[in-house]
Design goal:
By secondary structure, the chain is mainly α. It has two domains: about 140 residues, no CATH class; about 45 residues, no CATH class. The chain has a two-stranded antiparallel sheet with strand order 1-2. The N and C termini lie far apart (about 45 Å). The mean pLDDT is about 85.
Length: about 190
């Protein structure tokens, strides 16, 4: 039964989410909490690991959650569930690509969806930032994590410096810097 629940939950997430993995995070969060699969801090850790491992973030999160709840078969069920709707839609679109994209209703819908995607990604970024710096402890107490704020400030400064030097701060650079800062600051 747990396998079916994982599959159907992530099938629903994959079917109604547009805009990639980051826009799926709020829905994943709602589903995970409603099923009682993870705590807020566990989900934040899973998101952090999913961001730093290769592959799409939604697939990584689904795999991690499925694995944590029902082992390897659970990971497979959750992963197939989140990927299946996109796979089916892409196969259909590939078959009808030219005709499909020329349709003015499809173009209008895609333009409308863009705004929602930007909003979801911004809301997710804000929510994750607030949860990182100001979060509720296991006993429902409010905690301020100055180390997370220092890491965020250093990464922001580094990104701005790289832009000023007309270079880009690659995700790998940012992950390595944040990992090193986290290791140093959280050992203090």
């Amino acid at each position: 039964m747990e396998y079916l629940t994982l599959f159907l939950t992530f099938l629903k997430i994959g079917a109604v989410s547009f805009g990639g993995g980051y826009s799926m995070i709020p829905m994943i969060q709602d589903e995970v909490f409603s099923h009682g699969w993870l705590t807020e801090s566990e989900l934040m850790n899973f998101i952090g690991v999913a961001e730093s491992t290769p592959g799409p973030i939604a697939v990584n999160i689904a795999t991690f959650i499925g694995s944590s709840q029902a082992g390897i078969l659970g990971a497979l069920c959750a992963t197939v569930g989140v990927v299946l709707p996109s796979f089916i839609i892409i196969v259909i679109i590939a078959a009808l690509f030219r005709t499909f994209l020329k349709n003015r209703f499809v173009q209008g819908a895609l333009i409308g969806i863009r705004g929602v995607i930007v909003g979801l990604i911004c809301a997710t970024g804000l929510m994750m930032s607030l949860q990182l710096v100001f979060f509720t402890g296991e006993d429902s107490s409010f905690l301020f994590d100055w180390r997370a704020l220092v890491i965020a400030a250093v990464l922001t400064g580094f990104t701005l410096l790289m832009k000023r030097l007309k270079r880009s701060a690659t995700p790998i650079m940012l992950i390595l810097i944040s990992a090193a800062l986290g290791a140093v600051l959280y050992m203090i």
